[in-house]
Design goal:
By secondary structure, the chain is an alpha+beta fold. It has 2 domains: 77 residues, Beta-grasp domain (Ubiquitin-like (UB roll), Roll), CATH 3.10.20; 124 residues, DNA polymerase, domain 1, CATH 1.10.150.120. The protein has 8 helices and 5 strands, in the order E-E-H-E-E-E-H-H-H-H-H-H-H. The protein has a 5-stranded mixed β-sheet with strand order 2-1-5-3-4, with helices on both faces. Helix 3 crosses helix 6. The longest helix is centred in the middle third of the chain and has 16 residues. It is globular and about 50 Å long. The structure holds FE2/S2 (inorganic) cluster (2 copies).
Length: 207
């Protein structure tokens, strides 16, 4: 069945007449020409298609476009542009955190969502204290929280420090990318910067 829908993508409304079985990934790529989100597995296994839906990271290959009318959808194209890169985009370049780049848009969108989850205090499978008010990110925490995003080029050694650098000041004895680095909690100014960039999930939850 075909249906007329409106998707809010990167700040603009788009009207589409689509088959109700169309995935959000196909709608973005094939109908709106947004080829940042990649089709890796098309089965929710690789994270290459990750976008932000109302601030939360999702695999767009598993989402039906018709189910997300009214949601604020952000793709890698909406995070920054050539003149004004998102800090994570800049950090990935500076850390050489990719090779072929196929997974990179998904990695960056996922990292934006992941850092939001950290700000909100969400524990991960490797968090020791599930009730801790603040999450202290370590390399292991970043790896676990980003484990839904696969990189066939295995650029993980640079992806982890690229993400860590956006918000965190490494402690003097931390060795980013070594697997043993433990980072202090985000500094105040960095927290403020994150909220400015991607919103404050704690505040949204209270509303
Ligand atoms: S293409 Fe969506 S998870 Fe792989
Ligand atoms: S950089 Fe090639 S798949 Fe990640």
């Amino acid at each position: 069945m075909d249906m007329k829908i409106t998707l809010q993508v990167n700040g603009a409304a788009h009207q589409l007449f689509i088959d109700t079985r169309t995935t959000l990934l196909d709608a973005l790529r094939e109908r709106l020409g947004l080829t940042g989100p990649k089709k890796g597995c098309d089965h929710g296994q690789c994270g290459a298609c990750t976008v932000l839906l109302d601030g939360r990271r999702v695999n767009s290959c598993l989402a039906l476009a018709v189910a997300h009318q009214g949601a604020e959808i952000i793709t890698i194209e909406g995070l920054g542009d050539d003149e004004n890169l998102h800090p994570l985009q800049q950090s990935f370049i500076e850390h050489d955190a990719f090779q072929c780049g196929y997974c990179t848009p998904g990695q960056i969108c996922s990292a934006v969502g992941m850092l939001r989850e950290v700000e909100a205090g969400w524990p991960s499978a490797v968090s020791v204290d599930l009730n801790a008010e603040h999450v202290t990110l370590s390399d292991d925490e970043i790896r676990e929280r980003m484990s839904g995003n696969l990189c066939r080029c295995a650029a993980y050694a640079n992806i982890v420090p690229a993400i860590a650098e956006v918000l965190l000041i490494p402690s003097p004895d931390a060795k980013p990318g070594s697997g043993s680095g433990v980072y202090p909690e985000p500094i105040r100014s960095a927290q403020g910067k994150l909220r400015e960039l991607i919103g404050d999930r704690n505040k949204e939850a209270e509303q």
